[in-house]
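Last lecture ended with a question: if I hand you only a sequence, what can you say about the shape of the protein? Today we answer it with a concrete record. The protein is Biogenesis of lysosome-related organelles complex 1 subunit 3. Below, first the input exactly as provided, then the predicted structure, then a couple of comments.
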Amino acid sequence: MSHQGVVVMGEASESESEDESPGRKSEDNEQEDSSTPSSPSSFSLQSPSEDPGRRESLLHVKLREANAECIQSLETCVKGPLVDKTNDLRGLSQAMMRQQTILQDTASMLREWTNTLFRLEDQLSKVLTSNALSSFKIS
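The predicted structure:
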């Protein structure tokens, strides 16, 4: 039974002859660290034509498709409630504007009634202070 090594693109080597010296590894790690995106938001989806070094195996294609579906599902899960709450807030804002208009109309009417009551009070006090009531005779 003979053992043959299978080379799979993108995987680390298993033989000791391909290993590098420790000093060389740390330099490679530093380069890998600097090329690795620092946050998930820095990842981008590119079409195969945009990146000539990109792998086009069935696995890679399926992974990209699954990632795109996952991103779309996540957006849908997040967008749905946000859109609903935005609509709720819009409705509340419109209701508040209607209530504010009603309140302003009510305040205006109350001011008019208050002014009318003050005028009536002034007229009643004029009638009470004048001698006009003493000249009336009830028979």
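Comments.
1. Confidence is low (pLDDT under 50) at residues 18-43.
2. The radius of gyration is 42 Å.
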